[in-house]
């Protein structure tokens, strides 16, 4: 593969912003990233001037259920290919396939299917986002804060059951969302910490004290903060009080203006700082699709005006893409460099993926070309343009 050099007036690595920047790529890897005048062009290299556009790393989505009319729990190669192609068009180059609470049989089938896809060559084909692992949202959640998760399949935390699920997922489990107040949660959080799985506080009715104890025992993440959580009260700070004030915890934010009000988003930004927040989509099969009926896990959701709800009118995931989330963060006053980090470097850091954190020598050449209005123009994964 010949050398490719991309030149743009702004390159956000995003550790820094480089003016009149250039990205030199060979065989899917970044060779150099820096000012254009400091880079020598290898013989035979293709140089592309991107005009007024800017370059940022590919988005890393830690929480996504589907896109393009398909749900990850279908778990077929065809459905996962459709999902990864759909999100790639909007800049997501790395993602966690996120499951929902379901029966033991359905969960085992889905985890095994997703694991087979991750291990296959299909997961590395150009034109698709890479699935870096699995985020298990449930079944160890609070019935009181279950959202649209089916109540009949909710279970108490169990180290033995989770280890069995990890076996079904062939070791690709990366995040487990659970309610820390439930019996058995402490032992499961500690087990996750030992095995390298990120325990995330979510779908929880935990008190402040229960949430703090969970963090002390190894929980390091919080799932779609404000949503499906015990609400904050001045005499009952709850799980939100712990998440907002503990620097050890990263907070997911669905920045679509529907799941969380702009005032609440500003509160989160002020309390945590942009450096402790990761933008996620919580996208469903309806992402990139017209209004209509779709599946979320094993049940139906209806999308009207781009908003996903179940039959009872509850929010049921989203149709958000991370380019929109970045624009939303910027509209709230977050500097562009920080907003980009929220959807790229910080998400990759939470997963321990150094090759996805920054456009620097040795990193994967996953990148997005944005217009000055921050609209996705083109996307590259491992140095190959996505069509």
Question: How would you characterize the overall build of this protein?
Answer:
- Helix 3 links the parallel strand 10 and strand 11.
- This protein has two domains: about 80 residues, Urease, subunit C, domain 1, CATH 2.30.40; about 300 residues, TIM Barrel (Alpha-Beta Barrel).
- The protein is built from ten helices and 21 strands.
- The strands form four sheets. Strands 1, 2, 3, 4, 5, 19, 20 and 21 form an eight-stranded mixed beta sheet that branches.
- It has about 375 residues and is an alpha/beta fold.
- The mean pLDDT is about 95.
- Helices cover about 25% and strands about 25% of the residues.
- The longest helix is centred in the first third of the chain and has 16 residues.
CATH architectural arrangement of the largest domain: Alpha-Beta Barrel
Main pleated-sheet profile: 8 strands, mixed
Task: Report the strand count.
Answer: 21
End-to-end distance, in Å? 18 Å
CATH level-4 homologous superfamily of the largest domain: Metal-dependent hydrolases
Number of domains: 2
Find the CATH topology of the largest domain.
TIM Barrel
Rg, rounded, reads: 20 Å
Overall structural class, as computed from helix and strand content, comes to: alpha/beta
Helix percent reads 25-40%
- Mean pLDDT score, rounded? 96
Low-confidence stretches: none
Count of helical regions: 10
Strand content: 25-35%
């Amino acid at each position: 593969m010949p050398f490719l050099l991309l030149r743009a007036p702004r390159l956000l690595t995003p550790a820094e912003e480089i003016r009149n920047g250039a990205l030199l790529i060979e065989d899917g890897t970044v060779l150099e990233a820096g000012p254009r005048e400091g880079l020598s062009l290898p013989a035979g290299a293709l140089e592309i001037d991107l005009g007024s556009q800017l370059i940022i790393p590919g988005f890393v989505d830690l929480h996504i259920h589907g896109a393009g009319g398909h749900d990850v729990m279908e778990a077929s190669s065809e459905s996962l290919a459709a999902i990864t192609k759909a999100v790639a068009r909007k800049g997501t180059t790395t993602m966690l396939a996120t499951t929902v609470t379901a029966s033991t049989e359905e969960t085992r089938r889905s985890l095994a299917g997703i694991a087979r896809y991750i291990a296959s060559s299909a997961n590395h084909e150009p034109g698709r986002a890479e699935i870096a692992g699995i985020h298990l949202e449930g079944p160890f959640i609070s019935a009181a804060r279950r959202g649209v998760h089916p109540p009949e399949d909710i279970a108490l935390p169990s180290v033995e059951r989770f280890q069995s699920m990890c076996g079904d997922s062939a070791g690709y489990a990366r995040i487990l969302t659970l309610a820390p107040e439930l019996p058995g949660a402490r032992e499961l959080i500690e087990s996750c910490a030992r095995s390298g799985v990120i325990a995330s506080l979510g779908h929880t009715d935990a008190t402040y004290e229960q949430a703090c104890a969970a963090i002390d025992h190894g929980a390091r993440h919080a799932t779609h903060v404000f949503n499906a959580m015990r609400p904050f009260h001045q005499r009952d700070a709850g799980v939100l009080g712990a998440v907002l004030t503990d620097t050890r915890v990263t907070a997911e934010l669905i920045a679509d203006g529907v799941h969380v009000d702009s005032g609440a988003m500003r509160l989160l930004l002020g309390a945590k700082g942009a450096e402790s927040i990761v933008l996620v989509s919580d996208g469903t099969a309806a992402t990139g699709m017209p209004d209509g009926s779709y599946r979320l896990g094993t049940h139906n959701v209806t999308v009207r005006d781009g908003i996903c709800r179940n039959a009872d009118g509850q929010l049921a995931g989203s149709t958000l893409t991370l380019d929109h989330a970045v624009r939303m963060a910027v509209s709230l006053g977050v500097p562009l460099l920080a907003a980009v980090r929220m959807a790229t470097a910080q998400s990759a850091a939470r997963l321990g993926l150094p090759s996805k954190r920054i456009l620097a020598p040795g990193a994967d050449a996953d990148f997005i070309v944005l217009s000055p209005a921050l609209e996705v123009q083109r996307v590259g994964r491992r140095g190959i343009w996505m069509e």
